[in-house]
């Protein structure tokens, strides 16, 4: 049996702000239990729902030197769907009503604490990982600490680390003296071939330098991050580590996201009866959101963090033009105020066509995936993207920009060969996007049979974890030897 420990800042069902949580919550369930024991470690945030906290059992605690202090570290555990979770507890570090703060320095301090605590807790778990699988910058210090101080200890000797990049844009950067002060790492580590990057200390970079293997969440993104445009100043490092870098496309949880059994939707449907049943979800959502009740009108959904990554500048630019068309637009998301207000404004201006829901709701997200005809995701960059996979699963046709995982998972419609599962465009250009949306409208309104065949194809593609989980297993085998 090979032991794998995922360490991450979020994981479904306990805490989620985006796709990272979906991956951390669903991938471990799909790794072959005959050969691997995969467990997950995340912080015990105060903002985790009480009903989930009630599942946690106290295991042990200790005090740890950190940032000139001596800090409490509690370890709790819980089991969900056959996967064991460990939680690192320290209320002063993981308090507040959100897992992240708006202050980068504070987050660096909290996640440096988490990374050190995670390693320090391991010998107390009755579970010695063969591989520590780290996710994103919050855990970037783990491969560093593992090489620096923990390898000397017998327990840690030979443990391998993997760093998975879910989003290269977030790196955990701050000035060197402050990070040195927090981490207690010696000068040796703060050079441009290690943690230093353009005069700052960079936690993700540390992880990428010291991890034994690096993965990211699609093939195309793995190639893109070796270029200057997508490389976020780390493209040189990505090229240097090309042989240790692989792209493994994400899957989604086919049990949680299943139009036939989804408990959040009012009218479940299958690939055989969606023609009659899916529309009932649209009618219901139009009623609930106060949109014009009209079966015929094309409904376009957006469920997203509202950040510039997701292409909202393009949408802002053509929204007035788009609203002249026979379309409805349903948005669910939170994030940057300028985008929140942009959608509020259009909701006010085109009240019966646009519905802006500026909050977080698992339930409404499922309703949108089920009710809409199309799903818009014109990202500037997209490491993988899960929303388009959810849309495909619900027979909701994605309209995407050809970047990262969007390019790898949505096959563009070809009207001559009658192939494809969605619509896509190449350049980050608002009118190119608008032309693509209008092309989709044309197929939707004028060639309904073609549109429905596309739904058939989209509901038939398989983005469950099976294939990708196998690729992770191969990598673990290769690492452990
Ligand atoms: P990212 O991780 O960059 O945010 P992904 O497409 O990988 O993008 O994953 C986004 C996940 O977050 C999906 O599960 C999506 O349904 C969910 N999501 C985003 N915003 C909201 C929201 N406001 N309410 C509910 N779910 C949301
Ligand atoms: C990140 C990326 C997204 C990806 C998710 C899960 O948040 O932005 O593209 O799907 O991580 O890997």
Stretches where pLDDT falls below 50 for ≥5 residues? Answer: none
Multimeric status of the protein:
single chain
Strand content: 15-25%
Largest sheet, strands/sense/barrel = 9 strands, mixed
Bound molecules: adenosine-5'-diphosphate, alpha-D-glucopyranose
Q: Percent range for helical residues?
A: 25-40%
Span between termini: 13 Å
Numbering strands along the chain, what is their spatial order in the largest sheet? 3-4-5-2-1-6-7-11-12
Q: What is the CA-atom radius of gyration, in angstroms?
A: 23 Å
Topology, number of strands = 18
Q: What would you call the structural class?
A: alpha/beta
Shape: globular
Arithmetic mean of pLDDT = 97
Q: What is the number of helical segments per DSSP (H or I, 4+ residues)? A: 17
Structure explained in plain terms:
The protein is an alpha/beta fold. It has 17 helices and 18 strands. The chain has helices at residues 19-30, 50-53, 104-121, 141-150, 176-183, 203-210, 219-224, 235-240, 274-289, 312-322, 337-349, 362-371, 387-393, 404-409, 430-446, 448-460, 466-480, and strands spanning 2-7, 36-43, 57-66, 69-80, 83-89, 131-135, 160-165, 173-175, 196-197, 200-202, 213-216, 245-247, 298-306, 327-335, 354-357, 374-377, 397-401, 423-425. The chain has a nine-stranded mixed sheet, with helices on both faces. Helix 13 (387-393) links the parallel strand 16 (374-377) and strand 17 (397-401). Helix 3 (104-121) packs across helix 4 and helix 9 crosses helix 12. It is globular, with a radius of gyration of 23 Å. The protein starts with a strand and ends with a helix. Adenosine-5'-diphosphate is lined by residues 18-20, 22, 303-305, 332-334, 360-362, 365, 384-387, 390. Alpha-D-glucopyranose binds at residues 18-20, 23, 166-167, 217, 250, 382-386, 405.
């Amino acid at each position: 049996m090979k032991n794998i420990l995922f360490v991450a800042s979020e994981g479904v069902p306990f805490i989620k702000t985006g796709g990272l949580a979906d991956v951390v919550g669903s991938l471990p369930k799909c790794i072959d239990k005959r050969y691997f024991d995969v467990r997950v470690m995340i912080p015990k945030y105060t903002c985790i729902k009480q009903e989930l906290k009630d599942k946690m059992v106290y295991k042990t605690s200790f005090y740890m030197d950190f940032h000139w202090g001596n800090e409490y570290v509690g370890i709790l555990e819980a089991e969900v769907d056959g996967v064991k979770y460990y939680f690192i507890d320290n209320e002063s570090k993981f308090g507040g009503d959100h897992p992240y703060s708006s202050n980068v320095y504070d987050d660096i301090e909290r996640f440096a604490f988490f990374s050190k605590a995670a390693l320090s807790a391991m010998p107390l778990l009755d579970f010695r990982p063969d591989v520590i699988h780290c996710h994103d910058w919050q855990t970037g210090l783990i491969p560093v600490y593992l090489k620096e101080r923990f390898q000397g200890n017998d327990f840690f000797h030979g443990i391998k680390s993997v760093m998975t990049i879910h989003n290269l844009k977030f790196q955990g950067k701050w000035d060197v003296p402050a990070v040195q002060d927090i981490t207690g790492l010696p000068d040796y580590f703060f050079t441009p071939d290690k943690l230093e990057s353009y005069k700052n200390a960079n936690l993700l970079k540390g992880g990428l330098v010291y991890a034994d293997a690096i993965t990211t969440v699609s093939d195309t993104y793995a190639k893109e991050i070796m270029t200057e445009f997508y490389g976020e100043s780390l493209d040189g490092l990505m090229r240097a580590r090309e042989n240790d870098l692989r792209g493994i496309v994400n899957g989604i949880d086919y049990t949680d996201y299943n139009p036939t059994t989804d408990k959040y939707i009012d009218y479940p449907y299958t690939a055989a009866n969606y023609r009659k049943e899916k529309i009932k979800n649209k009618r219901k959502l139009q009623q609930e959101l106060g949109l014009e009740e009209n079966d015929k009108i094309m409904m376009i959904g957006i469920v997203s963090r509202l950040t510039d990554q997701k292409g909202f500048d393009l949408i802002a630019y053509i929204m007035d033009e788009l609203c002249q068309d026979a379309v409805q637009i349903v948005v669910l998301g939170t994030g940057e105020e300028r985008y929140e207000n942009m959608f509020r404004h259009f909701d006010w201006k085109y009240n019966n066509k646009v519905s802006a829901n500026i909050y977080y709701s698992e339930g409404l997200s499922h309703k949108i995936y089920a009710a809409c005809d199309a799903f818009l995701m014109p990202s500037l960059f997209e490491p993988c993207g899960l929303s388009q996979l959810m849309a495909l699963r619900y027979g909701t046709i994605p309209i995407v920009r050809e970047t990262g995982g969007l390019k790898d998972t949505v096959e563009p419609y070809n009207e001559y060969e009658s192939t494809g599962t969605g619509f896509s465009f190449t350049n980050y250009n608002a009118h190119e996007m608008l032309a693509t949306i209008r092309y989709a409208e044309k197929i939707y309104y004028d060639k309904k049979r073609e549109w429905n065949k596309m739904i058939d194809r989209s509901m038939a593609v398989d983005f469950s974890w099976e294939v990708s989980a196998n690729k992770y297993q191969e990598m673990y085998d290769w690492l452990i030897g």
